[in-house]
Amino acid sequence: MNLTYWQLLSGNRDFRNLWWGQIVSELGNWFNFIAGLGLVRMVSHASPEAAGILFIARLIPFAVFSPIAGTLVDRFSRRQVMIWSDLVRVLVALAFLSVTSEENLWIAYLATILLSTFGAFFDGAKNAATPNMTGKNGLLAGTALMFSTRFLLMAIGSALGGFAAAFFGYKVAFIINAASFAVSAFSVWLIPEEATRDDETAKRMSDKTERESFFSELKEGFQYTVQNHFALTILIMNVLWATGGGAINVIFERMGGVYFAEKEGWNPDLANGLLWFSSGLGLCLGMIVAHRAEAYLDYKKAHIPFIGWTLIIHGILFSIGGLMPSLLLLGIFCFVSRAIIGVEYAVQETMFQRSLPDYIRGRISTLDRGAEMTIFGVSSYFSSLAIYGISPQMLTVISGLLAGTSGIIWFLRAKGIDLKTQKNSQIAEEAEAN
């Protein structure tokens, strides 16, 4: 039986510390994102290409280093990886304070690359450790809480970040971001090492004579993904979604920070922040109701059609949003679209995590995330170039339709996927029991 959110938080101090650390650091991250984007817009004179480079710097390093991070956190202390990743990011976040002109804009790009790189290691360790902290019965609630608060903080952090940038300047947002990483490091430090992995994996780590090389284990992660039907389906589906989803950075920047800022008189940072707020709030709501949706889907055995149709419908709604005549109406369609995909993602991610044995979970989850973020980053950059030839409204329509096609791929590969998931879950459980 799945635990409720309150049961998990009230009865699990280790997960509570990890969750609290994420809340603070994610809030700071969104202050950094809105302020960094505004800073680049200001010093580059609103160049779409400069914004595209920032998106690349934010996304591609995460993608490149994720497989390496996944292998590392399966071999070494996940707790130590999280702590050191946070501490390094404290210093990196402060580097934005030295960006004052177009000539030293490279500092913002470099700092963004480093934040993304160390973020890959932190997320790899956190995602691999979370199922061990929650246990099987708490995994759905833990997954939903982790992602719902991340997206809620996307909403709150982007809105507050836009407000802080507009009224207090960009430096305040960067200082808040640095402080948030310090708080996160302290929260992770409170978690005992043994809470981050199961006994079987700890035994494998301690037995140095039987460990394969780093590159052999990295290769093992790639082989598992290619050979496992469910893991490969998730990878293909997420990559296809990212071909459209990656444009969202450019869409919100152009629609909010430029188009509606000029048409309706919005402050560019506030308009951009409002769109991120509506998107984050929708994703958060979707994650919160996922717990009830999962119970219904279990009863009806309807996971397959639910995932496929929600992916398709969310893409169509996002496309329609691009045709709206006002910023507020666009925000409403973003909210509804993201609420739908929020429920889908919580259900999908829980199924995926349950299917992965602990000893290889870090590698598989980071490989999937890394591939998705690679395409997300490439899509962001080419979307910034496409703005020179098409309107942001048309880019929004194309983005939604591309993202929605991931639901079609899901239906094409979904035959027998429930049986495979159950089989993988049994294998994982047997490994934990031995």
Describe this structure in words.
- The chain is mostly helical and 434 residues long.
- It has a single domain, classed as Up-down Bundle (Growth Hormone, Chain: A).
- Helix content is 84%, strand content 0%.
- It contains 18 helices and no strands.
- The chain has helices spanning 5-11, 13-43, 48-75, 78-94, 105-134, 139-167, 170-189, 199-206, 214-227, 229-245, 248-264, 268-300, 303-321, 327-354, 358-386, 392-404, 406-413, 417-433.
- Helix 4 (78-94) packs antiparallel against helix 7 (170-189) and helix 9 packs across helix 15.
- The longest helix has 33 residues, at 268-300.
- The two termini are 22 Å apart.
- Mean pLDDT is 82; it is low at 419-434.
Q: CATH fold name, please? A: Growth Hormone, Chain: A
Largest beta-sheet details: none
Which regions have little confidence, pLDDT < 50, spanning 5+ residues?
Answer: 419-434
CATH architecture: Up-down Bundle
**Helix share bin:** over 70%
Structural class: mainly alpha
Estimated radius of gyration: 21 Å
Number of helices: 18
Total of domains: 1
The global form is: globular
Provide the CATH superfamily.
Answer: MFS general substrate transporter like domains
Query: What is the terminal separation in angstroms?
Result: 22 Å
Which range does the strand content fall in? under 5%
Determine the mean pLDDT: 82
The first-level CATH class is given as: Mainly Alpha
Number of E-state strands: 0
Order of SSEs: HHHHHHHHHHHHHHHHHH
